[in-house]
Design brief:
The structure is a single chain. With 140 residues, the chain is mostly helical. The chain has one domain. Helices cover 63% and strands 0% of the residues. The protein is built from five helices and no strands. It is elongated.
Length: 140
């Protein structure tokens, strides 16, 4: 029996039935945010940290080479759990390594090529890791 406040047998009626198995599977699963940070925030953090490293590298000049620290971008990308964002941050870091070579010294020196290779390898491994993590979450 229904009471005046709309309750049936003392319980509020459901506005819609609970989702069935097909509806639960249709929802895309995403990696939980790291430390409560959203993927957007982690992506912006990676972009800003790469830009900071690039500025510091230009300020330091020939006294030191900080281009290897640009791996911070792809590493922030892995924390998002999204391969596309990690690939974006990898591309940004590689572009910055190339730009820093023009700004700070001779192009295609052994040191520059090593740092470029390191950023590319770390970026590829990070992107692959994020892709595997995203794929495994989508299969659950």
């Amino acid at each position: 029996m229904s009471s005046p406040d709309g309750r049936t047998n003392g319980k509020h009626p459901r506005s819609s039935p609970p989702p069935g198995p097909a509806q639960r599977l249709a929802r895309p699963r995403r990696a939980p945010p790291s430390w409560g940070w959203s993927p957007n925030r982690l992506t912006v953090l990676g972009l800003l940290l790469c830009a900071l490293v690039a500025v510091l590298d230009v300020v330091v000049g020939h006294g030191g080479v900080l281009a290897g620290l640009l791996i911070v971008g792809p590493c922030c990308g892995v924390l998002t759990g999204r391969w596309c964002r990690t690939a974006l941050l990898t591309t940004w870091a590689v572009v910055l390594v190339i730009v820093l070579a023009f700004a700070g010294g001779p192009w295609a020196t052994a040191t520059h090529l090593v740092f470029l290779a390191v950023v590319i390898v770390v970026g590829l491994v990070s992107t692959l890791s994020a892709a595997i993590a995203e794929w495994s979450l989508s299969r659950r």
